Amino acid sequence: MKQLVFTGLCFMQSVLAASAALQVRSLTCEHVAAPLGIETAQPRFSWKLDSNENGQAQTAYQILEADSPEQLTGDTGNLWDSGWVVSPSCRLISYAGSPLASLQNCWWKVRVKDRDGKISNWSAPARFATGLLAGEAPAGQWISNPSADFKTGTSWFRKTVQLKTAPRQALVMLASRGYHEFYVNGKKVDNRAMAPNASMMKKRTLYVVYDIAPLLQAGENTLAVWIAPPSTIVPRVDPAFLLQAKVDGQVLISDASWKTKISSVSRYYSDIPKPFFGGEKCVETDELRTWSDGSVDVAAWGNASVREENTLLSSDLTPPMRHLGVIQAKTVERRADGKVLVDFGEYFTGQIEASVAGTPQQPILFRSLMSDLGNPQDLGQISVYVPDQTGRGVFRQHFNWVGGRWMEISGLTELPKLEELKINRIGTDLQRIGFFSCSDALLNQIYETDLHTFKSCTLNGYTMDCTTRERTGYGEEAFATSRGCGLGNYDVTAFLRGWLQIWRDGQKEDGYMPHTAPAKSVGGGTLWSSFTVLDPWDLWLASGDKTVLEENYPSAKSWLDYLHSKVTNGILQRYESTAKFDFLGDWARPVPPESRGGRDKHVKNFGDSPLALFFNNGIYVLNLMTLERSARVLGKSEDERRWQGRLAALREGNHKRFFDPAAGTYIESNQVLSSLALLTGITPSVDNEKTQGALVAEMQKKNYLDAGSSGLPVFLQFLTDNPQYHDWLYRVLSRREYPGYGYFLAQGYNTWPELWDPTCSSKTHTCYTGISFWFIRALAGVQPLPEAPGYERFIVKPSFVKGLDRVSYEFDSPRGWIKVKWERKGGEVVLDLTVPPGASAEVQLPSGIQAAGSGSHQYRFVLGNS
To answer: Which residue in 355, 493, 675, 697 is deepest, having the highest Cβ count within 10 Å?
Structure first.
């Protein structure tokens, strides 16, 4: 009888849950799905909702948390039961259960009530694990190989441990000054590539938390760590690592008892004048194949050296690098000189994996090329593989990558088959959540190429200019790519929070901000250094997480105070050295078609030019406008007034100094400078019409985007904000002539090159990446609102440009799916809109503004110019 009653209750619960209109999915902790290494004792939980009913919303939630999956069954959790909390919020709910410990596993789930009080099913359980909580020092010691070459050498480390039983839980914190791979009993612990992500290593070292319980067994176990030098983009440090493991109740650490040996893999630099980031050298040995599995006798290995490291430790919660796909060779050809040329059919960023045959114990060279042998551009990306006595083997890169399209291989005795040659495409593993398409095939190709370029250049925890020659996180490209390609297309909140930490760590004590992060000595200007001002605002709008503003505001304020100290008579003066590449203005504008000729030609605004002076002043005004808004959100009224006072002085000073009242221009007829003046309010209302007229004349004269890497995101923002220019931009994007995106595609590129003239040496570059911003914000018209960030409320204001018959955009926002589709049908336009549960939209149509609650909506109307 009791069994019948229990079965009946379960049946009734399932019926009630099935009738609920809300479904819970996509659980995250601190913006990350299943993170290992959370460093706060009160982590924040979020989830998304789906519903097939209009007007639905969450009215209450219940969260359960436990320290094992078994403790999370049913309606109980042994760490936390929130009980029913009356709230519509599904974002950033703080943990309030039993105190958490460092290196602790946790599982949680959530269910909600809909508007009618019906209870949803429990979500699928989600997991997280803590790292080192605040105030707790690591138990391990920093160890290194004293014999290793800190620039090129990689080292193996081994430790054998005995366990009485196979553990139920085993978490490892592994911090490394350099890249690492982690093995347990001969198996790589996870599929990360080149962990951890980048940091400013003179200040901070990142650690990764691994779960190794599935790989451990009762009895003898072998822990093995492979350490390599860090990227040369960061200041040089000697490779070392620190390990602390919590295996049920047992603590394992790194110390002098670990055995170490220099491995047979090293970073390789050719003897060309500029080898840049080089390649990798691998000498095939039996030990290379077995060093991590416990079968190799390590008695002859040396002992690790213990040393002190003065560094902050932080968990690496930025999405890791992984292999994201395979690019197979398309053609293989042996040339007359015996060298083999491999064409992979597209420009790639990845790691070589090649099954080859050569002379036993003689080097085989892999030379990655941006062009074929007719005009070789290798940029020093040369790797070496030395096969064993069989002469055969597989070369795989571990701690470096290459970029290019072709591969020249020398030293082969047999021509490889196509399936034996591949590139493992490498990049930051960002989840795609935004999808755009339209009736114009060229626009679809531009959009996808924009995103592919962004993904190809986003590695190691930041977006770099290129993956070959510099690998540098320039700030002006960071601004363009994060808002243009990242937000609205990928789940980048954790990624951008990690990169912002790198920027803050590179800031000088006087407030000066370098041009890149990770910081190195390279050129740039005010926009290059303003990421901690501009990006947090964009990220807050998209995520709704005020913490983003709070943790970056001090850095932004310090930077703007530094700039204020360089202002004289309402003009920001050149505050950097007189070096040629400091205080840059717009960079890499196209040479006018009639003046085109030669290689690598582009228009440059160096720091000593009036154009650069005005551009840097305009960016400073944009910074002040942004931080004024941030101060208002954070309730910093005194700061808000301070920024307003500085804004007024700068606007007046720059307009007075640079405006030509007869022409309506600033210094010269210039798309970027005119749009920057209008966007920032430097142009007063009395002169607005004249400046707009001058800009229109310039756009008609040059029917292309006359902007470089720093001017383009500014110009795109202006164009997006002003629908009267959308038809012009659509015509520009439809061009296949130089200069333009269509021209790149007509030349056969699958990524954007460095310059508008693609004869340049870098074929995968972020200089002009970010055009997809306009596709989302203008053509689909989806825009977040500062009054309700995180897409709790948002604008839908599509631009129905002439020549385009259909636009579709689907975006898995922080609250769920937003879907916009408009299509011309006969003499009318049909707009379909989906709003996620608990959210609302402000739909701006030609007939006026309409409010849309959650669910599906359709609008039909006739355009005046249809």
So the answer is: 675
**Confidence (pLDDT) at 740:** 96
* pLDDT at residue 19, rounded to an integer: 58
pLDDT band at 378 (very low <50, low <70, confident <90, very high): confident
User: SS3 sequence, 89-107?
Assistant: CCCCEECCCCCCCCCCEEE
Of 590, 478, 604, 593, which is closest to residue 531 (Cα–Cα)? 478
**All domains of the chain, ordered by start, with CATH?**
2-129 (2.60.40.10), 142-315 (2.60.120.260), 321-428 (2.60.120.260), 434-780 (1.50.10.10), 782-861 (2.60.420.10)
Phi, psi of 638, rounded to the nearest 5 degrees: -65, -40
> Among all chains, which residue has been given the structure tokens 């495409």?
425
Residue pair 85/60 in contact (Cβ under 8 Å)? The answer is yes
**Hey, what are 636's tokens?**
């910093």
pLDDT digits 0-9 by tens, 270-317: 877 677 899 999 999 999 999 999 899 999 999 999 999 999 999 999
How many whole angstroms separate alpha carbon 46 and alpha carbon 791? 14
* Two structure tokens written together for 36: 């290992």
**Residue range 661-677: mean pLDDT, rounded:** 98
In angstroms, the CA 600 to CA 23 distance is 54
Helix (H, G, I), strand (E, B) or coil at 80: strand
Residues 6+ apart with CB under 8 A from 750: 346, 347, 449, 452
Residue 767 identity: C
762 three-state secondary structure:
coil
Output phi, psi for 420, to 5 deg. Answer: -90, -5
φ/ψ bin of 521: left (φ > 0), alpha (ψ from -120 to 50), beta (otherwise)? beta
Residue type, 258: W
Strands (E), 586-720: 587-589, 603-604, 659-660, 665-666
Task: List the beta strands (DSSP E) in 502-630.
Answer: 567-568, 571-572, 587-589, 603-604
DSSP 8-class letter at 465: S
Q: The tokens of 551 are what?
A: 């943790």
The one-character DSSP state at 540 is: H
Residue 10 banded pLDDT, cuts 50, 70, 90: very low
Residue 478 neighbours by CB under 8 Å, 6+ apart: 462, 463, 499, 517, 531, 535
For residue 529, the one-letter residue type is: S
**Alpha carbon of residue 171 to chain centroid:** 27
- Spell 6-23 as b/e; 16+ CB within 10 A means b: eeeeeeeeeeeeeebbbb
Higher-pLDDT residue of 531 and 826 is: 531
Give the mean pLDDT of the chain: 94
- Residue 20 reports pLDDT greater than 80: no
Question: DSSP assignment, residue 474?
Answer: B
Give the integer Cα–Cα distance in Å for 36 and 29.
10
The H or E element containing residue 811 is strand 806-813
Asked if pLDDT for residue 4 goes beyond 50, the answer is: no
Residue type at 101 in one-letter notation: A
In degrees and rounded to multiples of 5, residue 482 shows phi and psi of: -65, -40
CA 39 and chain centroid, separation: 21
| DSSP SS3 for 29 | strand
Element (H, E) at 288: helix 286-290
Q: Across residues 708-732, what is the average pLDDT?
A: 98
Closest listed residue to residue 121, CA positions, set 54, 7, 22: 22
Looking at residue 255, its pLDDT comes to 98
- Whether the Cβ atoms of residue 851 and residue 842 lie closer than 8 Å to each other: yes
Structure tokens at 406: 């072709």
Tokens for 145, please give them: 């190989």
Q: How far apart are CA 563 and CA 560, in angstroms?
A: 5
DSSP lists the bridge partners of residue 188 as 183
